[in-house]
Amino acid sequence: MERFYKPQSSSSGPKLIDLNKLPWDPADRIRIMDYHPDQRDVIRIQYLVNGPCQPRGHDFPKKYIGNKERRFNRTWFDKYGNWLEYSVKEDNAFCLCCYLFANHVGNQGGRDAFVEKGFNSWNKTERFALHIGDINSVHNKSLKKCEDLQNQNQSIETALHKQDDIVKRANRVRLNATINACRFCLKNSLSFRGHDESKTSICKGNFLELMDLILRHDQELPQLPKVAEEEVLKSIFKKIGDDVFALLVDESSDVSKKEQMAIVLRYVDPHGIVKERFVGVVHVKETSSLALKSAIDTFFAKYGLSTKRLRGQGYDGANNMRGEFNGLKAKILEENSSAYYIHCFAHQLQLVVVTVARKHLGVVNFFDNISILMNVVCSSCKRSTILREEEKEKVEKEIGSGILDTGTGLNQELSFIRPGDTRWNSHYKTLTRLVDMFPSIIKVLEYVKDECNNTSSQNQAISMLNFLSSFESVFYLHLMLKILGYTDSLSQALQRKDQDILEAVKLVETAKGKLQKFRESGFERLLKNIHLFCGKHDIEILKMDANYVNERAKRQRFNITTQHHYKFDCFNTVVDMEIQEFGDRFSEINTELLKNMTAYIPYDSFSKFDEAKLMRLCEFYPYDFDNGEKIALEHQLDLYIDNVRKDERFANLKGIGDLARVMVETRKHISFPLVYRLLKLTLVLPVATATVERCFSAMKIVKTNLRNRIGEDFLNACVICTVEKEALESVTNEVVIDRFQKMKSRRGQL
């Protein structure tokens, strides 16, 4: 019988296709008829949901047709928006509707050009109308089929499953409740599923506990986070439009040891306000510059973004990121010379502090002892309890004696915070707590010395008591507390999402100026505070005019006084190293690009305005200003400066961020469009990658050890909705329901 009957091979069935990874560029797609018949409608619906490939921000290349330069005009997207597509890869135009439904392609009406080969005769604009044709043309029939496919009320499956208004209303109520439950879980980074979701389970998980519904009643409910993510991204990309933006990228591994790359876009919204929006986390197999660049190109292609609209890059200092020849920075600059790179200011600030902490021997010993102190005091629950009890008694005594005031939020319980290895602003909190809790910490050490049975712990406690009772340790404690206080304030300011590059430069210069002033006249005040602290806690105060004696080598004699050692060998040396590192690390401050941007600063009635600098600034952006616009910009700048100086609404602006916002509010961005365009180029330059770091913090909450099997797409959807809560709030349930309905053919109508 096998001669006459051959069993059907399992390979004849449809192959699994990831609808989220369908080719976006028309040149990369295969023919719709090459898909399995059972999959064609699903693929067509997905393409219609995604919409035509319209990279509005792309810098369309010019080519000679005849004796004139011609190129694709982005206004054609507005005129033929429901079907016209553009291939970045081949510089050709295509028709989405005809690709989906025109099965037999001929030459009538230019269908062959718009479907298979692509149309690129940009001088023959009449071909668009010719392609559309009359009411019975292939294009219009294909367009009608697209509309019918999206209109599920006309489908046979829906007709066979008739529903009255009561059932539809009930479906809508259930879906609204489901969406609200999803919102709650996404905003609070909660898991959807429970360990035991059976009917007899006491705790079925967050989603099922929120909903009076069992997940198996509708197997498509897990698609809702993906729908919400797509609508959030849609709202973000709509605000960017075809405007310029900057790219912030960093990579980190998750709990499953998968390397994830977070992508953040910085842009100026239609209200003139700087925004940094998280748009996705992408799994990369390696962190080489080529792999990161490939992942970014794929992401840009998927959402219609173009590297030609990039006007800034912000990364950390890793070689794969900022390498001059093979780094990600260099790869992007090869394609777009106007995508200027800014090394994350917050990361550079950390390197300033780390360098001093690793180079000066006294500071190195001080922080090494702080690490040992943390291990001794906080190594057990019992010692932590003693510390809290001692601190509680101290606060009660000070309240009773009138030293401390009482009230809501005052005198909260403190803990001795362990500093992080990579976040040096956490050391500032540790030193602050050490000063505040000093007597309580001493008592814990005395307890360990007297009561502990472990000889090693007793020796460490004795060593730490000697360390804390020495004048040298108190000196370095107050010195580093002062320096870290300056850098902590600067770090907090640099991490603001709306921080602009000029304000960041000003903050860095201010911090450097404070350190310089502290070096010149701060020693005597620092010494006074040290003496007060020593007197309060019964620590021996050294005589400053006596010969200096090294506590670790008392036999060694020095021909200098104690004051000379602490002022010149310790104080001046540490502060000078800090000031020098500020100058070496923040090299961007002295670049011509940033110097020219300072002409926009609105302080003191625009006293720093310099037309020559702004004209030089526009030379850095050849893709944004042609020769005619440069001439027009010069005239606009003359009118602009006279206008804003006379306008009281521009009198008390705090920075260029406020300047852009007020220009939009007063509609001067319409009166001086070229001036506003140059201002936006200044605003999009990134300052720090703090937003990217926040995304990784959210990812660690979403994907935990208990949720380490979460899929890549679902992880991306959850993290986006968790981080971009503001954008999620702007997406209404009606929009989610509409997109959910269009994702595939459904019997149940909403």
From TrEMBL:
GO terms for molecular function: protein dimerization activity. Residues 68-162 form the TTF-type domain. Coiled coil: none annotated. Pfam families: Dimer_Tnp_hAT, DUF4371. InterPro entries: AtLOH3-like (IPR055298), DUF4371 (IPR025398), HATC_C_dom (IPR008906), RNaseH-like_sf (IPR012337), Znf_TTF (IPR006580). This is TTF-type domain-containing protein. It comes from Deinandra increscens subsp. villosa. The lineage of its organism: Eukaryota, Viridiplantae, Streptophyta, Embryophyta, Tracheophyta.
